[in-house]
Specification:
The protein is built from 8 helices and 10 strands. It has 234 residues and is an alpha/beta fold. The chain is globular and about 60 Å long. The model has no long low-confidence stretch (mean pLDDT 91). Keywords: Repressor, Ribonucleoprotein, Ribosomal protein, RNA-binding, rRNA-binding, Translation regulation, tRNA-binding.
């Protein structure tokens, strides 16, 4: 029989896994459960009323969180010509094309977001087997394949997040750090929900946002009462 650790027992004593909590209490409880020495992320799982087996109901989008995600975002930009100087001036950590691709093939991935100019995508496509599984492949639908390199980098640095549903129709994404002020966590969650609402497939019927669970990197999940989120998800 698997034994429950002291940490898990401590968390289970704080919450009832079967109960739903309002958003304010959820955040307070998350912070009480945090005992790690590092600054844990705030993670959200959102069950959507979509059929992921239908291509027209799959969701993939991005949004900018008003308070960022609480970490330094490392950006790689695949480009050439004058865009190289633009990318460097805007703070991209890795800039280039052929040499950058070789470095990634040899040394692996050391960045969080990849951006590519349109004229470089034919060359960048060879990194599909490396970037694809990590959801880092530049995509025009997400604004990461663009000739407006400056705006793309600024958005990434400001706290732009990318999300898509998994095979069960669930969105998993981080919306900040546990040391964020409670209101900032709420603001970031609302920004995500507004974006999700705009991304609702026209063919999806019935309840769209079915369940929201919030947790930290090391905590158990807390189910949120959707009625306490506000008008965002109506």
């Amino acid at each position: 029989m698997k034994r429950t650790t002291k940490k898990m027992q401590f968390m289970h004593n704080l919450i009832d896994r079967k109960q739903i909590y309002n958003i304010e209490n959820s955040i307070v409880l998350l912070k009480k459960m945090t005992t790690s020495k590092f600054n844990e992320s705030i993670d959200v799982s959102i069950n959507l009323g979509i059929n992921p087996k239908k291509s027209d109901q799959n969701i993939r989008n991005s949004t900018i969180l008003p308070h960022g995600i609480g970490k330094h975002i490392r950006v790689a930009v695949f480009t050439q010509g004058k865009n190289v100087d633009i990318a460097k001036k805007c703070g991209a950590e890795y800039v280039g094309l052929n040499q950058l691709i070789k470095d990634i093939q040899i040394n692996g991935i050391n960045f969080d977001i990849a951006i590519a100019s349109i004229d470089s995508m034919n060359t960048v496509s060879k990194l599909g087997p490396i970037l694809g599984p990590r959801n880092l492949m530049p995509n025009p639908k997400l604004g990461t394949v663009t000739n407006d390199i400056e705006t793309a980098i600024k958005n990434a640095k400001r706290g732009q997040i990318y999300y898509k549903n998994d095979k069960n129709g669930i969105i998993h994404v981080s919306i900040g750090k546990v040391n964020f002020e409670n209101e900032k966590i709420k603001d970031n969650l609302n920004a995500l929900l507004v974006s999700l609402k705009k991304s609702k497939p026209t063919s999806a019927k019935g309840l769209y946002i079915k369940k929201i669970t919030i947790s930290t990197t090391m905590s158990v999940g807390i189910n949120i009462d959707l009625n306490t989120i506000g008008k965002t998800i109506v």
